[in-house]
Amino acid sequence: MAVPSTTDVGVRREPSLLGQTVVVIGGSSGIGLATARAARAEGADVVLTARDPERLRRAADELGSRRSAAFDAHDPDRLRTFFQSLPGPVDHVLVTAGSPYYAPLAEMDTADAARHLGDHVRLVLEVARQSALMVRPGGTLLLMGGTGGRRPAPGLAVTALLTVGLPALAATLAVEIAPVRVNLVAAGFVDTSLSASLLGDQLDARRAQLRASLPIRRVVTADDVAALALHLMANTAVTGATYDIDGGQQLG
Q1: Domain span at residue 123?
Q2: What is the mean pLDDT of residues 145-173?
């Protein structure tokens, strides 16, 4: 009898999220969309939300999304309504909605800065509360944060607060809503449309600088972050943890 080769065995690997449902809050572009694509490739159904209805429709059509909803995730009433409208439990929730806040102190609108902080924290807390009700035991609430605020620099006051606070929040939520697992992905620069909009005509120079300086000698992409997100969904032993993905950006 012929013995199957290791290649044959590898080809037959069962998809890691087969039959599971992944909800992506902010799933029409960037890291959210890349993660939804990767989840579909691993056998999951995906539910997408985003603010822009047309961009969301294109993403949902591309992925054959089971369900999608266009709304501002920072609106707690709309967010609760969305979760309550789901037909049943889900396995994983990823939150990528939101954008960084950069402003030197002298130019900062402090009311706007406080609003940004409040909106971000409220979003995480509300999603956590809904995930405690809707995510199956052993499933994941996966939050997105960053590493940029760990190195002090002008203009990063608000970003620094979130950078330092989110790991503690994720760990606390992991205890409070267990057995739902809660983890945080902390990214450095990721080459996405959001990065392009923030950097404008400085984008190419930033890419070149990172390719020359990062230990990995390339720029981190949304697909890189998606691969980490899927690992954290599939590995049921991980909770309360923060995982950096920055290509070694903090080592320089």
Answers
A1: 15-251
A2: 93
